[in-house]
Specification:
This is Sugar ABC transporter substrate-binding protein. GO terms for molecular function: catalytic activity. The protein has 6 helices and no strands. It has a single domain, classed as Up-down Bundle (Four Helix Bundle (Hemerythrin (Met), subunit A)). By secondary structure, the chain is mostly helical. Helix content is 82%, strand content 0%.
């Protein structure tokens, strides 16, 4: 039942998948776990009053999970021009200028993909808030685990942003990416922490 292909590729010396792909995969796992809670809730008379909203959350979680899985390959594609730029010759002024231009262009995609992963993880955390509060109590611990996983994915993806903005010459663009990253971290981290604390309290 366990598909180890991605994990084995991640463990290899190949440059991709790497941290970005792993972040997207972890976010997808968090989404799947939150969906499990929702699927255990719908159709139960006890939760009839949240049935419609829970089904809506399940649709959103499915869409977000699919997007996160697609971002695994997107992250790998974004790394290719970055790796190529770092490998360009730098022996002459012209070569150094060409290498720098290629690098600066590649850094844009290398920042925007992990930011998209972070945005998706925030969406997962937002769904976790609802499923933890209104989902089946039999799966309460799973709702909390989903929030924790999504927060970890959010934080992991942010590291790809940090490392890439550090090489950007365009300070204004770098600051914009940094602000987006920090806003996503702050919003998602706070919500995930609240879900975890609430779940622990209710389980104790």
């Amino acid at each position: 039942m366990v598909d180890t292909e991605f994990v084995e590729a991640l463990a290899s010396k190949a440059p991709t998948p790497g941290g970005g792909g792993a972040s997207a995969y972890a976010g997808a796992l968090a989404s799947a776990l939150a969906s499990m809670v929702g699927n255990l809730t719908v159709g139960k008379k006890k939760y009839a009053d949240v049935e419609e909203r829970m089904r809506a959350e399940l649709v959103e979680l499915d869409d977000t999970r699919a997007h996160l899985l697609s971002l695994i390959d997107e992250d790998a594609r974004a790394f290719e021009p970055l790796a190529a730029a770092y490998g360009m010759p730098k022996d002459t002024d012209a070569e150094r200028a060409a290498q720098s231009a290629a690098l600066q262009q590649a850094l844009v995609g290398a920042c925007e993909v992990p930011l998209e992963i972070m945005a998706c993880c925030l969406q997962v955390i937002e769904s976790c808030v609802f499923v933890a509060r209104h989902g089946s109590v039999l799966a309460l611990s799973d709702a909390g685990a989903a929030a924790v996983l999504a927060k970890a994915a959010l934080m992991a993806a942010s590291l790809n942003v940090v490392i890439n903005i550090g090489s950007m010459d365009d300070v204004e663009r770098a600051d914009g990416y940094r602000n987006q990253m920090e806003d996503l971290l702050a919003a998602g981290g706070a919500m995930a922490d609240e879900v975890y604390a609430d779940v622990v309290k209710r389980l104790s």
